[in-house]
Amino acid sequence: MSQYNESHIIGEIQKGNKKAFKVFYLKYYAQFRSFADNFELSSDILDDIVQEAFIKYWERYDQFSSVEMIKGFLYSTIRNQSINHIKHRLVKLKHVDTKLKEVNSHEFFLDKIIKEEVHTELYEEIEKLGNKAKQVLYLSLQGLKNDEIASQLEIGAETVKTHKKRAYKILRSRLKDIRMIVSFLNI
Question: How far apart are the first and last CA of the chain?
Fold first, then answer.
């Protein structure tokens, strides 16, 4: 493309001519895609970054009066987007590394075992309660409020409170050994 043709195309792009933009895009895409390869990201990500850079240019087409200005903008945009992608990837890797260390720790392992054992024991004891008390507790554990439980079970709100109070009293006495173990382990 000669200097005259480039100037003409840039002039047409400044007027919002989409066909001129397409000609410019097709001429320079490979060059900018090749530049993006230097950032060693996946091919799909680099394709997206380059296309996004051209889109950003198109959103501001009237602000650039020369090929040099456009190229400078595209190079900077591609570099900045690539760096942001790399930073994001490093943050994710750091997060994964931190999570792996946490999950691999002995404390995490013991904590999860204890929680699972307590959870199992609690639900076994709830199953031994009377039918209404059991229903009330399960609905409560799902996050429902007393009036919502009363409505769902077609009983009064005071009856819900009574079932909860009795159930908690029974569970406290049946689970006192677990409470002592958990409080001891939390020291």
Answer: 77
What is the pTM for the complete model shown? 0.55
Residue type, 46: L
Task: Indicate left, alpha or beta for 102 from its phi (over 0: left) and psi (-120 to 50: alpha).
Answer: alpha
pLDDT at 180 over 70: no
Using CA atoms, how far residue 42 sits from 16, 94, 96, 176, in Å, is 32, 19, 20, 56
With a CB cutoff of 8 Å and minimum separation 6, the contacts of 136 are: 149, 153, 160, 163, 164, 167
Q: Please write the tens of the pLDDT for every residue from 124-165.
A: 888 998 899 899 988 988 999 999 999 999 999 999 999 999
- For the beta carbon of residue 27, count every other beta carbon within 10 angstroms: 14
Candidates 18, 14, 61, 54; CA nearest to 35 is 54
